[in-house]
């Protein structure tokens, strides 16, 4: 999944890229409870990938933890040091380096709550129109960062449902 939306809504999860900042922040704030419920429902299958080369429910949860931690840092960057461009990061390399499926699904729920709380403070602490250069995507506003992170929350909740047995 790359970041620049080509349509007004995500064709997979239905995220509306025109969503106002307030509801986008609310979406992220609500995500930890939804992810924890989905991981509980997955039970022991939470750390099992449905097929080789795909992520498990637990991996998606830990990825979302990292998305929100990095998202908070990016929002602080916009607010505190907008002269330094934002860089890219490789989510697959980070997943391997952290060993997502070896990490606890129970701890993922706690880490996600903490990451979302920190992210929410960062999101509410920067003007939505404050801008920064992204090395690959050009100029981005804080609202762009917020919407990208909100999309990640919506999309990966859908992904968790997709890889969790009924």
What does this structure look like?
The protein is mainly alpha-helical and about 170 residues long. A two-stranded antiparallel sheet has the order 1-2. Helices cover about 60% and strands about 5% of the residues. It has helices at about 20-40, 55-80, 90-100, 105-125, 140-165, and strands at about 130-135, 140. The chain has one domain (about 20-165): dinb family like domain (Four Helix Bundle (Hemerythrin (Met), subunit A)), CATH 1.20.120.
List keywords for this structure.
166 residues, mainly alpha, Four Helix Bundle (Hemerythrin (Met), subunit A), two-stranded antiparallel ribbon, 5 helices, 58% helix
CATH superfamily: dinb family like domain
Contiguous runs where pLDDT drops below 50 for at least 5 residues: none
Please give the share of residues in helix: 55-70%
Order of SSEs, N→C?
Answer: HHHHEEH
Estimate the mean pLDDT confidence. Answer: 93
User: What is the CATH first-level class name?
Assistant: Mainly Alpha
- Total of helices: 5
Number of strands: 2
């Amino acid at each position: 999944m790359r970041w620049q939306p080509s349509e007004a809504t995500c064709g997979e999860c239905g995220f509306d890229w025109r969503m106002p900042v307030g509801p986008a922040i609310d979406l992220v704030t609500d995500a930890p409870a939804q992810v924890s419920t989905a991981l509980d429902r997955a039970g022991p299958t939470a750390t099992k990938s449905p097929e080789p080369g795909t992520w498990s429910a637990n991996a998606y949860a830990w990825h979302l933890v990292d998305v929100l931690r990095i998202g908070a840092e990016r929002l602080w960057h916009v607010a505190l040091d907008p002269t330094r461009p934002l860089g890219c990061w490789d989510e697959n390399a980070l997943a391997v380096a952290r060993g997502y499926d070896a990490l606890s699904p129970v701890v993922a729920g706690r880490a996600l709550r903490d990451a979302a709380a920190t992210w929410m403070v960062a999101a509410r602490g920067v003007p939505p129109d404050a801008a920064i250069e992204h090395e690959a995507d050009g100029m981005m506003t804080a609202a762009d960062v917020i919407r990208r992170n909100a999309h990640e929350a919506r999309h990966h909740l859908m992904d968790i449902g997709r890889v969790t047995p009924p």
